[in-house]
Amino acid sequence: APINLRGGIGVLNQLAVTFGIFLSQILGLSEVLGNDDNWAWLMAFITFPTALNILILLFCPMSPRFLYISQNREGDARKELYRLRRDDDEVDNEIQEMEEEKKAEKEPDMSVWDVLTSKSLRISLIIGIVMHLSQQLSGIVAIFYYAVTFFQSAGIE
After folding, report:
1. How far apart are CA 123 and CA 72, in angstroms?
2. How far is residue 138's CA from residue 123's CA, in Å, rounded to a whole number?
3. What CA–CA distance (Å, rounded) separates 144 from 88?
4. How confident is the model at residue 1, as a pLDDT?
């Protein structure tokens, strides 16, 4: 994505996940599809967005940044960028930006043990582990599971 759109486009993934959870809560209501007669339709419903995503993916270009920075495939990156931008000057400018980014992001080769024992990464590692554990242990899945019951006991039908 162009630099000016990257942050906004990155938010779309979380928005889609949130919308999917909301839609599944609505479809899971017993009045809609969450009953003995329609549960199979509810389970089958997921095939539609999945099939749509697979079809769309067939027409998406590969990531030029991944091709250039991670795979060192400049020719393929140029081809995919041209497919997106249709302007040689823009392609050249973006390849130059990626080259600068590649030089700036050169990471040392580290094994898992090196990461776990590195004093400079210890705080970051602890923060990451605590965040993941707090998410897993927060009980949000139970809230989603019992959401309908919560609403019903609050008088919302």
Report:
1. 32
2. 22
3. 49
4. 67
**pLDDT tens digits along 103-143:** 887 777 888 898 889 998 999 999 999 998 988 888 777 77
Through-space distance between the first and last CA atoms of the chain, rounded to whole angstroms: 43
pLDDT in tens, 43-93: 898 899 899 999 999 998 899 989 998 899 999 999 999 998 888 998 999
Beta carbons within 10 angstroms of residue 28's beta carbon: 17
What's the predicted TM-score (pTM) here? 0.52
Residue 68 in contact with residue 98, Cβ under 8 Å? yes
Could you give the C-alpha distances from 70 to 96, 101, 121, 133, in angstroms and in order? Answer: 15, 11, 22, 30
Contacts 24+ apart (CB under 8 A), 99-104: 99/68, 101/69, 102/68, 102/69
Residue 76 · residue 62 · CB < 8 Å? yes
Per-residue confidence (pLDDT) for residue 51, from 0 to 100 = 94
CA distance 97 to 61: 19
Residues in the chain: 157
Tokens 């024992």 -> residue? 117
